[in-house]
Amino acid sequence: MTFEIKEDFLLDGKPFKILSGAIHYFRVHPSDWEHSLFNLKALGFNTVETYVPWNAHETKEGVFNFEGILDLEKFIQTAADTGLYVILRPSPYICAEWEFGGLPAWLLEKNCRIRSSDPNYLEYVEKYYHVLLPKVTPFQMENGGPIIMMQVENEYGSYGEDKEYLQAMVTLMRNNGVTVPLFTSDGAWLATLRAGSMDEQDILSTGNFGSKGQLNFKNLTSFHQNNNKKWPLMCMEFWDGWFNRWGEPIVTRDPEELGEAVREVLMIGSINLYMFHGGTNFGFMNGCSARGTKDLPQVTSYDYGAPLDEQGNPTEKYTVIKNVIHEMFPDIVQTAPKVKSTIEKSSIQLTNKVALFEVLEEISERHTTKYPANMEYFEQYYGYMVYRTKFLKDATEERFRIIDGRDRAQIYLNKSYVTTQYQEEIGDDIQLALSRSENQVDILMENMGRVNYGHKLLADTQRKGIRTGVMMDLHFMLNWEQFSINFEKLDRIDFSKEWQKNNPAFYQYKFELDAVEDTFLDISKFGKGIALINGVNLGRFWEKGPYLTLYIPKALLKKGENELIIFETEGTYSETINLSSAPIVLDLSQEE
Q1: What CATH code would you report for 364-485?
Q2: CA distance from start to end of the chain
Q3: Does residue 155 carry a catalytic annotation?
């Protein structure tokens, strides 16, 4: 088969309307890919779109991972087996409310300007593409595969206008075997289209928006005409919902209003629903919004208010869109969607607990330096690091300050809690009352997620941990130990050691299951931290809400004994914990 972009999209020479939905393979457990793709096909859609997150595939420089939830080739093949075409967006930057917009954090330690024609940056992209693109080019349509288009860069017009960079990206893709049509996607107004598009080449310009289809397509048409192009119109990201941040109400959208907005787009052009199935930001991969001087981390759930919920089951929006498709295109075959079930289990008893500082040596990599260094310096790109030093008492009370740190600092004097500071408070004075002649200070630093959009991608603030130093009185303190906590070493924890009130700690729960299905971990009685089920990091939780549960795909559970370990940083925990059959959401709407 052939796919071309002329005055219309052409599949085997015939006009083709793209009905696409976004499913990010890296946010959905591989055992559930077929379920989500089937439900997309059942809706009557013909294409699936996905980003490719560079930072997940090359977390450490030169070390690549394409296994398990990162098996992109398997995802593409599953889409083909389901009868779907694929739009692939392998650009180095993806935004996507994903940690650092998909850029690997190790770039922060390199001498390069990201998302630019800087030769140093392009060299890193080239090395990545030498590994990535040979894996996907065999799936291009000319090779009998499902891939019909690939993206050059993502919403570049909202960031830069370096056409030399865009051309370099095209050259890298073509030199590495990409033959399918290429496209760019930007906000559908002149400034972003002009900055982010490649108007002198046959690279399709598409628009991203979530409403006002006629107006946005009119803007896109005018831009095409101004560049002497007669191109088909496509909304590459039609935002059918939105992401959520900690401590804010869940963003909602009326399903009927959405249905009419989808109809408006489809009367004129093609569509990619963003998202169709949002999924979950497992581990530490949630993104972060930049608002003024503050960075606002996003939540673990990427439910997005999509046609499929976080678990992958149809919502009311699914039904509304399905009806719109049937009314507009009655010849399209639609089938009943698949629905997954859930289980619940109450009063799972706490098995063990132990304070972090008691087991820190066993579960960390230890580094010693004269001055404290940022987390990236030690290749601790995500999660937590403990900074420790010892000092002599000079007065009964001392002025203590962290100079330039991100994102969250918890300070302990002789293993007793003192205070917590967030990014906007770090640098404020802390008064330490000293009763001992020799003292130890521990600082638990948390990277709460790097920004995924905007100018702060270049900001020094995206380096995490302590970046300048720590002062006592008027001088910088020396001789630091830094402990990079490694959550893959939790099997080394000795739970016979002490637990201490108001300290960060590990809580272990063991429980039996006769049968496994999806479920939701109720963490409403805990403060802040992460949860791991059978060794897999489910993601962050925080009592601020709005979500008070973490989604557990059934593939992560076992018949028989299961182990849950919660790392909680506030000293707030429960002797029992529950598995819920549905998400638990804190209503924050009255607080706005």
Answers
A1: 2.60.120.260
A2: 53
A3: yes
The domain 345-353+492-591 having CATH identifier 3.40.50.11030: the answer here is no
Same fold, 18-328 and 364-485: no
CB 510 within 8 A of CB 560: no
Give the relative orientation of helices 72-82 and 119-136 as an angle to the nearest 10 degrees: 40
Which of 155, 310, 358, 376 is catalytic? The answer is: 155
Give 374's Cβ-side CA count (13 Å radius): 20
Two tokens, residue 16 = 């083709």
Q: Which of 153, 237, 358, 570 is catalytic?
A: 237
Do the Cβ atoms of 463 and 374 come closer than 8 Å?
A: yes
Q: pTM above the 0.85 mark? A: yes
Tokens 């140093």 appear where?
120
Q: Which CATH superfamily is domain 18-328 in?
A: Glycosidases (3.20.20.80)
Residue 216: enclosing H or E segment and its boundaries?
A: helix 213-226
> How many CB atoms within 10 Å of residue 551?
26
- Active-site residue 264, yes or no? no
Each of the 592 residues of the chain gets a pLDDT tens digit; together they read 999 999 999 999 999 999 999 999 999 999 999 999 999 999 999 999 999 999 999 999 999 999 999 999 999 999 999 999 999 999 999 999 999 999 999 999 999 999 999 999 999 999 999 999 999 999 999 999 999 999 999 999 999 999 999 999 999 999 999 999 999 999 999 999 999 998 667 899 999 999 999 999 999 999 999 999 999 999 999 999 999 999 999 999 999 999 999 999 999 999 999 999 999 999 999 999 998 878 999 999 999 999 999 999 999 999 999 999 999 999 999 999 999 999 999 999 999 999 999 999 999 999 999 999 999 999 999 999 999 999 999 999 999 999 999 999 999 999 999 999 999 999 999 999 999 999 999 999 999 999 999 999 998 889 999 999 999 999 999 999 999 999 999 999 999 999 999 999 999 999 999 999 999 999 999 999 999 999 999 999 999 999 999 999 999 999 999 999 999 999 999 999 999 999 999 999 875 4
Which amino acid, 397? Answer: E
Residue 294: Cβ-neighbour burial (10 angstroms; 0-12, 13-18, 19+): exposed
Please tell me the distance from the alpha carbon of residue 529 to that of residue 361, in angstroms, as a whole number: 20
The total of other beta-carbon atoms located within 10 Å of residue 162's CB is 17
User: Domain ranges in the chain?
Assistant: 18-328, 345-353+492-591, 364-485
